[in-house]
Amino acid sequence: MLQQLSRYGTVDGVDTDPNAVRFCRERGVAGVRRLTSQTLPWEPETFDLVTALDVIEHIDDDQAVLGEVQRVLRPGGTLLLTVPAYEVLWGPQDEISHHKRRYRAWQIRERLERAGLEPVKLSYFNSLLFPPIAAVRLLRPRRAGDRELKSDFTLTRAGRLNEILTRIFAGEAALVERWNLPFGVSIVALARKDANAAFALTA
Length: 203
Prior knowledge:
Blueprint: H1 2-5, E1 13-15, H2 18-26, E2 32-34, E3 47-53, H3 62-72, E4 73-84, H4 92-96, H5 105-114, E5 117-125, H6 130-139, H7 159-178, E6 186-193
Parallel strand pairs: 1-2, 3-4
Antiparallel strand pairs: 4-6, 5-6
């Protein structure tokens, strides 16, 4: 992701896993730091854009992290956020991925506003595939005593199927640009730091 974003400007990143940080540096991605606390290692008002793409659902205190994002954003800066949607869709993939929670759109709006960030775009996405994904999640419950967690991604190894899914996502992206979709497997939010905001309200 850092390599993709570097086409648009100077990028920095954090990860809690030292192996991930080393992996990046070995491949020439130098602007990566290891995160050892919930405090981001930058001065206030450092960035024009912060991305948290499927990040905050892994963190115990997601509200504190959003407050940190607000702190390091410049006035008028933007947060791009994605998270998994609907607790009812909780499944083995969430456990494999070490998720703490899934969200509703109103919960994301509430957290952003509490952190001093104004939502300017808030939509569900991955909506076209919502019915089959929901069916898999709801109709394939784990049985008591099951020990083996199986990733949902094992269902999409076929190259042709991945190509079809890529086209579906690309088509849906155009819809999300124009409208806020009412349901989906995930949520995307674009939020802006008020130019007059001085600090995050995380209480």
